[in-house]
């Protein structure tokens, strides 16, 4: 499973931070940050989700009020949102 996070879309509600510890608050910029992620295009970061964190990653994506987080399965199919 892979997660993508669009930092430019993020509005800093930090609901993802409450759901998965791979997200952290960057209060100086008013954005969340996805730890250990690689920037795959301008402002979009991606990383693999460990099996033991898949449920937390899904909750983080579902709670994002602006759909800045997208989850893909191992075949590249979009799961959330």
From TrEMBL:
This is Ferredoxin. GO terms for molecular function: iron-sulfur cluster binding; metal ion binding. It comes from the Archaea. The keyword Glycosyltransferase does not apply. Pfam families: Fer4_15. Keywords: Electron transport, Iron, Iron-sulfur, Metal-binding, Transport. InterPro entries: Fe-S_cluster_ET.
């Amino acid at each position: 499973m892979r997660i993508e996070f669009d930092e430019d879309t993020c509005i800093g509600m930090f609901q993802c931070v409450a759901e998965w510890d791979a997200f952290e608050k960057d209060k100086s910029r008013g954005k969340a940050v996805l730890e250990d992620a690689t920037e795959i295009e301008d402002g979009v970061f991606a990383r693999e989700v460990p099996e033991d964190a898949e449920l937390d990653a899904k909750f983080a994506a579902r709670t994002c009020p602006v759909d800045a987080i997208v989850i893909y399965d191992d075949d590249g199919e979009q799961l959330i949102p």
